Amino acid sequence: MTGIDNAAHRDAGVATQRVVVVGAGIAGLAAALRMRQAGWEVVVVERAPARRSGGYLVNLHGPGYDAAERLGLLPALAPKDIGFFTSILVHADGREKFAIPAAVAQEAVGSRALSLFRGDLESALYDAVAGFADIRFGTTVRSITDDGEDVGVTLDDGTHLSAGLLVGADGVHSRIRELVFGPEADHLVDLGHMVGAFPLDTVPEHVPDGVGATFIGPRRTAAVMNLGPDRSSAFFTYRCPDPAGDLALGPVSALGRAFGDLGGGVADALRLLEIDPDGAYFDSVGQIVMDRWSRGRVVLVGDAAWCVTVFAGYGAALALDGADRLGAALEAHGDDIPAALDDWEAGLRPEVRKRQALARKGISRFAPPSRAHVRAAELMLRAIQLPGIRHLVHRAIQRANN
């Protein structure tokens, strides 16, 4: 276990209560930052032995961008913004079908938007938190007690912590949710798909510079982005009747079996994955659905509470927004923690419910059921380049983000 005391105790007297945040991903670090802004002493517990980097692209717009602004992150994030790039739809062998200019996406999303690698967002959050939080890597929570006044947290290294609030931000397979709310099976809704994503240290040979190439076929999608060295990535999703079986295979074998017949940039990405499989994110796709996100002085944030899945494309934005709203609710209600958590959840739940519904509807975009659905999707993508249709799409996206 590595414990890092980043001045958390050197400026004692600024914070009046302690919060323990479990998970040093986007949701956890955002919660740590916002809780400090609300006047809390912060301890962050992370199972991984060290910080993680890399990852796939995330988009911040609408409430997610607004939350990043309120958290003070925009100066650090703006230089890492990838911006908009040309998207090319390709045949199975990698040949181009048609291109969608960057201007189409830019017009639809607007100027208050950021496209970032997940690792860059996490780094900006970590840098914002490191000066005050006691960050403990390589450990996890063994047990929790809650007497209504304080939460007792025992770590697997034997350390005991006492806090006024415990925030579980440890992802879709949350240990905190299991300990407090019951087994994962009670809350996980399996969507019957797999997702794989990983950074590409070497640019894909068969994808032009500054371009994202996407293959969409029946029950699967593969996207490979060539945005330069250390800024390129690959994303895969596919229909899977046996997620447990594919998880056992691992990303190299499972993705190779599902996409090995494809050429072009997809083949490039799969070859690079074989060289460095450890950097890949590979998991089944499932939503977390719960009646309550808090119990006593324990609250869940981010994927641990409401995972909307990659099909919503809004996980990072909701993590920031949820953490920011949590801090605001605690500030508004003072020592009345139950009232703060009730108010926070009532305000956030409609947005989560909407995003989860959009994700379920969006499955057919990522894994069309048939060739007819693929052709219909291609017609729609061609149509949105027409000025009149583009305007309608722009208005629909604005409504979805408000």
Automatic annotation (TrEMBL):
<protein>
    <submittedName>
        <fullName>2-polyprenyl-6-methoxyphenol hydroxylase-like FAD-dependent oxidoreductase</fullName>
    </submittedName>
</protein>
<feature type="domain" description="FAD-binding">
    <location>
        <begin position="285"/>
        <end position="332"/>
    </location>
</feature>
<dbReference type="InterPro" id="IPR051704">
    <property type="entry name" value="FAD_aromatic-hydroxylase"/>
</dbReference>
<dbReference type="InterPro" id="IPR002938">
    <property type="entry name" value="FAD-bd"/>
</dbReference>
<dbReference type="GO" id="GO:0071949">
    <property type="term" value="F:FAD binding"/>
</dbReference>
<dbReference type="Pfam" id="PF01494">
    <property type="entry name" value="FAD_binding_3"/>
</dbReference>
<feature type="domain" description="FAD-binding">
    <location>
        <begin position="18"/>
        <end position="180"/>
    </location>
</feature>
<dbReference type="InterPro" id="IPR036188">
    <property type="entry name" value="FAD/NAD-bd_sf"/>
</dbReference>
